[in-house]
Amino acid sequence: MYLTEDDITRLSDHLKVAVPDFERRYVYRTKNIRRLRVPRHAQCEFLESGGCSVHEAKPTQCRTFPYWPELLDSRRAWHKTGSWCPGIGQGELVNIESANAQAEVMRAAHPHLYK
Ligand code: SF4
After folding, report:
1. With a 6 A CB cut-off, is 54 part of the ligand 1 pocket?
2. Is the peptide bond before 86 cis (omega within 30 degrees of 0)?
3. Which of 38, 62, 85 to mutate for ligand 1's pocket (most ligand atoms within 8 Å of CB)?
4. pTM of the prediction?
5. What is the rounded distance in angstroms from the CA atom of residue 9 to the CA atom of residue 111?
6. Where are the domains of the chain?
7. Is 109 in the pocket of ligand 1 (CB under 6 A)?
8. 47 lines ligand 1 (CB under 6 A)
9. CA-proximal residue: ligand 1, atom 6 (nearest)
10. Non-local CB neighbours of 38 within 8 Å, separated by 6+ positions
11. Is the bond preceding 69 in cis, omega lying within 30 degrees of 0?
């Protein structure tokens, strides 16, 4: 998962650890990109049997899923994602304006992904 600086601050606060300590343990950083490190034993350090252990503070990319621009822009990509994501197609309908607003949040948070 990609991280914004705000994501890092929010997650550090949530876990009650200093930002540098959080970064050392959980963040892979290159010149322009910050990502959650992927542990060997799991898909995400924060994924537990009951779900996301940092739900209230989870990264923007997680919060906006599945309303990412690349999924809203492609019916094929949306259906492909729905083939493995148990949440897609369930629950109450979400209007397109709300979905597009989430896509804009994602676009603004990670412009390098949407050049
Ligand atoms: S929602 Fe939580 S468990 Fe899932 S990828 Fe994001 S941080 Fe990790």
Report:
1. yes
2. no
3. 62
4. 0.92
5. 19
6. 1-54, 65-115
7. no
8. yes
9. 62
10. 44, 45
11. no
What tens digit of pLDDT does each residue of 72-107 get?
A: 999 999 999 999 999 999 999 999 999 999 999 999
Is the distance from the beta carbon of residue 1 to the nearest atom of ligand 1 less than 6 Å?
Answer: yes
Share of the chain above pLDDT 90, in %: 92
Query: What is the per-residue pLDDT across 21-64, written as a single tens digit (0 to 9) for each?
Result: 999 999 999 888 999 999 998 899 999 999 999 999 999 999 99
Atom of ligand 1 at shortest range from CA of 58: 7
Task: List the residue whose alpha carbon is closest to atom 7 of ligand 1.
Answer: 58
Question: Which structure tokens are listed for 15?
Answer: 């876990």
Nearest CA-CA partner of 61 in 8, 95, 106, 29? 106
